[in-house]
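JOB MANIFEST
job_type = single_chain_structure
chain_count = 1
residues = 233
[input]
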Amino acid sequence: MSLKAPETPPRIQNRAVAIFGGTFDPVHHGHLRAAAEVSEWLKVSDFRLLPVGTPPHRTQTYASAFHRLAMLELALAPFQDLTVDDREVRRGGTSYMIDTLRSVREEVGDVPVFLCVGQDAANALNTWKEWRSLFDLAHLVIMTRPDSVSQYPPELEACITERLVERTRDLVASPAGGIRSVEVTQLAISSTNIRNQLAQSHSPRFLLPATVLSYIEKHQLYSPNGPQADTVE
């Protein structure tokens, strides 16, 4: 007689939206692992990775918004709990998170929204357009790693201190305004390193999904003879 394995209970989900933005130039397993861990921690029903269209704080991206979006869609295709939000690519022009969150808020009403950022981005949050208004639209989830260092300027540190909450359920209880940190696994992978390997004709396999690497090779992205960088005007 064979024993039937117990069924895995479905994961309890909070009706909420989480946004994890980035250039994803290219997307790699470090991005995906962080997204998976934060999604599980928040238990949200809708976790979105959002490729920036034209970043305001960088002079260029190395692959066009079209290619970065395509690579992210390939990377997330096997995972039903992670989706791509392409609104910044479709919108065109310089991408500001405040505009994106306003757009998301118009769609979801008073459902809780989580903006997920790394520690480096959180350290410079006060340089973002209308940064104080971000908290009217979303909670802030700061993704930290063991070597992360918080270095907030005084006005930002005061804002973060007064908005910190200790429990996830306190965030889910309101649409926006709270802040929590969550530690994610540190993987020694970076988009910069992957681009450098490709530029030197080295293979970055196993650092990013095979489907993404195949796409990069097909379109000769990040190679000396590949497409020109997508310059921000």
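[summary]
The first helix runs from residue 29 to 42.
The chain has a mean pLDDT of 90.
exit_status = 0
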